[in-house]
Fold Ribosome biogenesis GTPase YqeH.
Amino acid sequence: HSSELHCIGCGAAIQTAEPGKLGYTPRSALEKEEIICQRCFRLRHYNEVQDVSLNDDDFLQILHELGRTDSLIVNIIDIFDVNGSWLPGLQRFVGNNPVILIGNKVDLLPKSTNKGKLASWLKKEAKEMGLNPIDVLLVSSEKGFQVREAIERIEQLRNGKDVYVVGCTNVGKSTFINRIIQETAGQENVITTSPIPGTTLDMIKIPLDDGKHLVDTPGIINDHQMAHFISKEDLKTITPKKEIKARVYQLNEQQTLFFGGLARLDYLKGGRRPIVCYLANSIDIHRTKLEQADHLHKVHAGGMLQPPGKETLDNFPELIRHEYKIKEEKMDIVFSGLGWVTVNEGAFVAAYAPKGVGVMLRKALI
Ligand code: GDP
């Protein structure tokens, strides 16, 4: 019965089973004469967008549609989970449309982070993923940092065209768009919004001054995100809530650091030296001898070494080893979605992350 109903806002088929998916409507709202899905309801009454997620096939469809538009594409990624944030093939799909890359959540980084270096690192990473953004911006949607600047830049670069905002789930796409709505409501010459959604099937359109639109596209669930391997509880533990602080360890050769049970760093060779860890303060770091590390992990993963907690341990991917010889003055080894460690020249290390979660090397940001 409910499959015959459609949302009067976006036209999606109404369903009551899966919150966060297209057309979701609480059962209690079905009594109404005109049925509106929860997403449209929120937009209409609270000026607030809500992310809905899609599977790969539906998302490919969206990407195809982007290629047919004449627009500016804004790709939001989580700078704390760069590896898990990419939309593979985006450049190919967008055709000739320019892409702005926005790294969100900069508020999580220590204040001393070199933002210029971070932006150029991001640009380089993007190139390696086949993406050629015309600009790279760093913002905090939650704190409002550089959001106004981002809006202005979008306004400049869109050249009177529509703007499509794309990103995978959890990068902060909704938070960013809601900020835009907040920041620009009641202003002229910047993006203005209207509480009445004019929507296509699965995209929410926010009217701009000139009759064009800012379009919120659904997010895709990216399997590479650390967030998908752990429980909601554990995600809270690993996600920093505020600026992360450096934790310094003086390590001898053949010592190991465990970051909960999620990741590990073996310091193999290079004499006694400091290793600086930048992770959420709520993640415990355990130091041990390398020769005991495997055993320690086997016995204590899910217990002393957590997250992951016991309940997710069974489905948790194995840790994969990546070796690095540090050849430049100071480098960061980034555990995507978790944080990074800074190691200086001459060190020989092995970094472990769950299979599927990226480990990357970059010039130190601090
Ligand atoms: P979406 O799935 O891409 O729409 O992401 P959301 O907007 O729902 O945000 C996902 C999570 O990231 C939420 O817990 C947000 O509170 C958080 N978040 C979003 N933007 C920021 C930010 O700028 N800084 C921080 N620290 N957290 C953010």
Summary: Residues 51, 104-105, 107-108, 140-142, 167, 169-175, 219 surround guanosine-5'-diphosphate (CB under 6 Å). The chain has ten helices and 18 strands. Confidence is low (pLDDT under 50) at residues 187-201. The longest strand covers residues 71-78.
